[in-house]
């Protein structure tokens, strides 16, 4: 992808002629490898490399196991190696005597950098991690289409969750059904481990689904995303299984107001720090002050956390074409929590919400007690419609 | 986990007092962090650290977002930081003036190593990647139980695949059903992206499922695994959708014989190189010489590729407690391929197969043509039993 490679070089130190992206064993693959080559239709390329040049050209070095996959890359030369020595010789040839070579320190394991230094002992190595991140933050048309599709798949699943809920089901069971629904909807899989937290577990932002069973009046917090052509979506919805208590509704409404402030502020030119501070202020002006314990959002793309953050420590300015999550939350240990998360595409004058499920508080109607004459059916958990 | 930490130090250079494991953003997490802390029940710990000491003790540094998750670690001290400076101060305290500090170069991104050097400018940094790998290769009782469970879940799904097949279904659809079945069976999810390859696509070992539709007499190659408490299984079965042709059966039988040679040779004391060479010989003595284009197997654990390999380039010797895949294959570009893969626990006198689905060639019976009077039903793909 000539245009993406040129974007990276535009952010890199002047005079740099080549950049080497070097994958280790999965999961330690460099997302920049997939960004630059656009090899999103399969292949791990463990131990593989991409050599990028400042004219936008690219050479892919792969073992023979993935030669067929690598040849799907448009506009790239593909060279096949059978062992480390061959790879180093091909690398040296592909670099073509450039004395200054870039590498991505944020996604290359240390031992691979040692390997590069041994392969090209004469080269001066320059970290281009920041350039790679800046290039990847602003999405091109193809990337936006993929994230949009991933967001649509996740939104449709969010719409269906109320109908999946049944008293006594476990967090793990719900997450299994959500993942299956995403894949049936066209996702390659979840973009990260699906979070399902019932009741008091909703107080833990990075909770993983366990065997906790769904009870009447529980919060149901679901944080999940679809992966489509390697691109991620990321959405959170919090439901109430039954009628919301006054406190459950109060917490929900505050989070929703905070998120709306985020939507209103997100546009090209806005400061990420300011967006976060204003969102946090909504929560910190209530009695839940201090209960919003993470940043407002993160950049989304090939990684779920794809670079920038909407946080008080951020010096990032939003630009048109960036995709961020907006996800305030309130967490009350031992009681529960609410998070509402959507993905937005930053535009010149505002932002477009890519995830489209309703943000109204959904209270999932409990089934009416069955007549006593039919005890067998009453005991079986059934799917409910709201 | 005192015993695991002591195992790492037993393989590390003498005199080393501490080791720092430092996670970056997911997926660039250090599996050794999860090995040493046994934090397998949730939590990403991005930006988190584990400081291991040669007395087997451990200090976990985490942000407040994951404090609750971190406190699940038995025998470990948990310290909470709110920003980078605080983390560096806590790190310095936890290291306690040790002058030589270990780090895992194979799973720490370069920029994090730079961060460590800045945090502890006086320390000498020693790569303990090889010690970590050697320690992790021999599984303890708890780890074997998790892999056994992950293998059981995947085996049950392999048994059900013939009943999932229907003419016209896509590779993606089958992979969705397989993933759902694994999660319903107790898996946290797939341990890697499920490979489903129909017909000629089975010739590509690292293929990702696409929209290719299942046709009569296709090979159906399924390579997948379950993740259970962060531990992986990895199994491949190749079916024929219909009656196998003579060539399909011939290729299958050769691969099966090669795998049996692998099973027969795997035991404590065996050389990985020798096992691979003998397995490859079975294939290379046939007309499919040169069509087995990868190594015979890999170590399995927290990573799907967890360190050692059964390969001609390996100098590893098998030890009791190691878990390896045995997975020969034959790949004929443009025609198709067969791989059969099982997970084995190395024992003193042989190996135990943890994946237990049949390795007989399964020819999936096609449905009989429906009577013409009922065209509507005949058009609908139905599930078939063998």
Strand content of chain A: 15-25%
Radius of gyration of chain A: 24 Å
* Total strands of chain A: 20
Q: Give the overall silhouette of chain A.
A: elongated
Mean residue pLDDT of chain A: 93
Q: How many domain regions of chain A?
A: 2
- Write the CATH architecture name of the largest domain in chain A: Alpha-Beta Complex
- The helix/strand class of chain A is alpha+beta
N- to C-terminal separation of chain A? 47 Å
What features would you describe in this structure?
Two copies of one chain form a homodimer. The first copy, chain A, is an alpha+beta fold. Chain A has two domains: 2-137, Creatine Amidinohydrolase, Chain A, domain 1 (3-Layer(aba) Sandwich); 141-364, Creatinase/methionine aminopeptidase superfamily (Creatine Amidinohydrolase), CATH 3.90.230.10. Helices cover 33% and strands 21% of the residues of chain A. The first copy, chain A, is built from eleven helices and 20 strands. In chain A, the strands form six sheets. A six-stranded mixed β-sheet of chain A has the order 4-3-2-1-5-6, with helices on both faces. A four-stranded mixed β-sheet of chain A has the order 8-9-12-20, covered by helices on one side. In chain A, a hairpin with a 4-residue loop joins strand 18 and strand 19 (351-353). In chain A, helix 1 packs across helix 6 (129-137) and helix 7 (141-164) crosses helix 8 (171-184). The first copy, chain A, is elongated and about 70 Å long. In chain A, 52% of the residues are buried. Chains A and B meet through helix 5, helix 8 and strand 7 of A and helix 5, helix 8 and strand 7 of B.
């Amino acid at each position: 992808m000539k245009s993406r490679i040129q974007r990276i070089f535009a952010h890199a130190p002047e005079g740099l002629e080549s950049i080497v992206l070097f994958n280790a064993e999965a999961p330690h693959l460099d997302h920049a490898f997939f960004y630059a080559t656009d090899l999103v239709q399969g292949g791990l390329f463990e131990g593989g490399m991409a050599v990028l040049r400042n004219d936008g050209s690219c050479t892919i070095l792969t073992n023979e196991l993935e030669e067929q996959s690598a040849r799907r890359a448009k506009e790239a030369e593909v060279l096949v190696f059978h062992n480390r020595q061959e790879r180093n010789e091909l690398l040296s040839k592909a670099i073509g005597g450039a004395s200054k070579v870039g590498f991505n320190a944020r996604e290359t394991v240390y031992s691979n950098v040692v390997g590069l230094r041994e392969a090209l002992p004469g080269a001066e190595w320059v970290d281009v991690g920041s350039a790679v991140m800046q290039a990847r933050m602003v999405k091109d048309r193809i990337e936006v289409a993929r994230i949009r599709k991933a967001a649509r798949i996740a939104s449709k699943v969010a719409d269906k969750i109320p109908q999946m809920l049944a008293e006594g089901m476990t967090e793990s069971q719900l997450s299994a059904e959500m993942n299956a629904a995403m894949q049936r909807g066209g996702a390659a899989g979840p973009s990260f481990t699906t979070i399902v937290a019932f009741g008091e577990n909703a107080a833990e932002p990075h909770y993983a689904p366990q065997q906790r069973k769904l009870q009447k009046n529980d919060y149901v917090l679901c944080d999940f995303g679809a992966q489509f052509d390697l691109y991620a979506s990321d959405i959170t919805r919090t439901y109430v299984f039954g009628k919301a208590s006054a406190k459950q509704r109060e917490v929900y409404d505050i989070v929703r107001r905070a998120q709306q402030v985020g939507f209103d502020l997100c546009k090209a030119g806005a400061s990420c720090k300011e967006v976060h501070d204003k969102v946090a202020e909504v929560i910190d002006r209530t009695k839940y002050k201090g209960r919003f314990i993470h940043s407002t959002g993160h950049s989304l793309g090939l990684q779920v956390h794809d670079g920038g953050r909407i946080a008080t420590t951020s010096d990032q300015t939003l630009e048109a074409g960036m995709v961020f999550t907006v996800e305030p939350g309130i967490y009350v240990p031992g009681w529960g929590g609410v998070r509402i998360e959507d993905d937005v595409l930053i535009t010149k004058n505002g932002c477009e919400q890519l995830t489209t499920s309703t943000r109204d508080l959904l209270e999932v109607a409990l089934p009416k007690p069955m007549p006593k004459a039919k005890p067998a059916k009453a005991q079986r958990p059934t799917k409910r419609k709201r």
